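Protocol step 4 of 5: obtain the predicted structure for the target chain.
Materials: sequence only (see below). No template structures provided, no constraints applied. The aim of this step is simply to have a reference model before the mutagenesis design in step 5. Sequence pasted as it appears in the construct record:
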Amino acid sequence: MTHNIHINIGSNSGCRHALIERAAAAVSSVLGGEVLRSDIIETEPWGFESDNTFLNLGLMTVVSLPDSTDMEAFAIGLLRRLREIERGIDPSPHRDSEGRYIDRAIDIDLIAVGSVVVSLPELIIPHPRMHERYFVLRPLSQLDPSWRHPLLGLTAVQLLDSLG
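Step 4 output (C-alpha cells):
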C-alpha cells in the first residue's frame, strides 16, 4: 500500500536558509526515493511572540509498504529519525523552562502519513494542530492538494481555505 508522507521544516534563527537546506537534505536521505519540495514561505511565529520570522518548507514522498506493516511502529521510527536529524543540526530546546515555544534554529515535524491515524504519547498524526497552521497547510496544499485529513474529512486545500 502507498502512503504520502508529509514533513514540515521550519527555522527562525541563525542562517535560516542554510539550516533548512541542511535539514531537507538529511530528511531526504532518510526517506529515500523521490522527495518533493514546496516553495519556502516566510511566516510569523505561531504560538509565541518573536521578532524573528520563520522560513518553512514542506516535503513529501510516497512510500510503498506491505499491508502487514505496523503503521504505528513505522511512524514512530520515522519520527525518531527526524528528531535525530533535528538534534544533530541544533540540540537546543524548542520550549523554555515553563513549556512555552521559543525561537529555534530548526524544527522538523511529521505532519501526516497518508490517512494513517496514530494517537500515542510520543506521536499524534495527523499533526494535532496542522489544521490551524498556515505554514503547514500552504506547503501541504502545494504538494498534495487532494490529501484528505482522515479525522476532519477535508482536503489540504479546504483546510487552507478555512483559515481565511
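Step 4 remarks: The two ends are 34 Å apart (CA to CA). The chain has a mean pLDDT of 94.
Proceed to step 5.
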